[in-house]
Design goal:
The complex is a heterodimer of chains A (255) and B (174). Chain A is mostly helical and 255 residues long. Helices cover 63% and strands 0% of the residues of chain A. Chain B is rod-shaped, with a radius of gyration of 66 Å. The chains are: A mainly alpha (255), B mainly alpha (174). Chain B: It comes from Rubricella aquisinus.
């Protein structure tokens, strides 16, 4: 397959970094349910994400110090940040869902940040991952909405303040936008991560091909890397705050 | 060999993200990870961090309360100190006034005594001065009489009548 690329040409494969490959079977990609338990490069980085979260939130808070260590301070800041977000956006009665939202936030945040380590694997750039996260939110919010409000949850789609003639039209638009939510929710995260990492790879390919002129692509990589750090945090934040907003619809559908 | 070529062809040119064959594997491990994270967070990490923050809040509130307490005590102590100062000042003034009155009494007595002595002495002195003056007048009269007698005797010895001269001198001296 390498023979497909002519020697001396730009030899850039920005999408290769996203390939899911088994770690212990010579790099074969998993095929359907037969390879359900295969340990892949993605499995490794998902595991590292879990370990990083445990490291920060469990080991970091191990000292239970009144004057926190650096790690404990970061853990407390993260806790306070998301707790306040849930409280402010969703409401005081939503704090019982705080662990769920914290799980989402920490997983996305750490997956995003670990993906910025060179040669690592970007877990959250995979639509399979982000779609599952978004669908989990969508299904839980919808189920919760009906369980808590019964059929009254449907009143969310019926704009009472609009003129009577417009109401059915608006209701259809509301309904469509409701079902588009998980799509935008998941693609926003996955596409942001994928695009950023692909761009980094493209510039890295330029740097490899330009010899001394590589200074410019390297400068660009540095700048884009900074941007990607920002994107990693912001996308985790956006995903979480949207989850809070959707959850608010389930808890208080009437306003 | 043929299957490998086929999978390679399906994943290499396009987006690996859209390789549906990898989805079950990805989703399986994702769910495993989420379950682990959720249990670790909800059982261990979040209650612990929540408790730490709560404890710190309580501690700070307690410290503030204690500080307010100490402040109140300090204010009370200051008030007591000021009161003591005022009392001491009044006492000092009272003692000073009493001492002043005592001294004044002594001074008055001493002055009265001195006045009495002075007036006694001056009376005595006046008496002596009067005495001296009288004796001086007598001496002047005697000298005048003798002088007059001698003058008269020198002018006319027959006219030197001692009694007449003395009477004339005494009349002149009055």
């Amino acid at each position: 397959m390498a023979g497909k690329y002519v020697e001396g040409e730009f030899n850039i494969h920005p999408m290769d970094q996203f390939k899911v490959e088994g770690l212990f079977n010579g790099g074969a990609t998993p095929q359907g349910f037969a390879d359900l338990f295969m340990i892949t490069n993605q499995t490794l980085w998902i595991a590292l994400t879990v370990l990083a979260i445990i490291g920060l939130m469990v080991l970091g808070s191990r000292g239970r110090a009144n004057v926190p260590t650096r790690m404990q301070s970061v853990a407390e800041l993260t806790y306070g940040f998301i707790y306040k977000m849930v409280e402010d956006v969703t409401g005081k009665d939503a704090v019982k869902y705080f662990p769920h939202i914290m799980t989402l936030f920490l997983f996305i945040l750490f997956a995003n940040l670990l993906a910025l380590i060179p040669t690592s694997f970007s877990v959250t750039s995979h639509i399979a991952v982000t779609a599952v996260l978004a669908l989990m939110v969508f299904v839980s919010v919808t189920v919760l909405g009906f369980v808590l409000n019964g059929v009254g949850f449907l009143s969310m789609f019926w704009p009472k303040d609009a003129p009577a003639a417009l109401r059915p039209v608006l209701a259809i638009i509301e309904l469509i936008s409701y079902f588009v939510r998980p799509v935008s929710h998941s693609i926003r995260l996955g596409a942001n991560l994928m695009a950023g990492h692909a761009v980094l790879k493209v510039f890295a390919g330029f740097a490899g091909a330009l010899g001394l002129g590589a200074v410019f692509p390297i400068f660009a990589i540095t700048a884009i890397y900074g941007l990607e750090v920002l994107v990693a945090v912001i996308q985790a934040y956006v995903f979480t705050i949207l989850t809070c907003v959707y959850l608010k619809d389930a808890l208080h559908p009437h306003h | 060999m043929a299957t490998e070529a086929a999978t390679g062809a399906s994943s290499t040119p396009g987006m690996p993200q859209l390789d549906i064959g990898t989805f079950p594997n990805q989703i399986f491990w994702l769910l495993v990870a989420l379950v682990i994270i959720f249990y670790v967070l909800s059982r261990v990490a979040l209650p612990r961090i929540g408790a730490i923050i709560e404890e710190r809040h309580d501690g700070i509130a307690n410290d503030l309360e204690r500080a307010a307490d100490y402040r109140r005590q300090a204010e009370e102590a200051e008030a007591a100190y000021n009161q003591a100062l005022i009392d001491a000042r009044a006492e000092a003034q009272r003692i000073a006034a009493a001492a002043k009155a005592d001294v004044q009494k002594d001074i008055d007595a001493a002055i009265a005594k001195a006045d009495a002595e002075i007036s006694a002495q001056s009376a005595e002195s006046e008496a002596r001065i009067a005495e001296i003056r009288d004796s001086a007048m007598e001496a002047v009269e005697a000298v005048a009489k003798e002088t007059a007698l001698a003058v008269v005797g020198a002018v006319d010895a027959d006219m030197a009548d001692a009694d007449a001269v003395n009477a004339a001198v005494a009349a002149q001296m009055k």
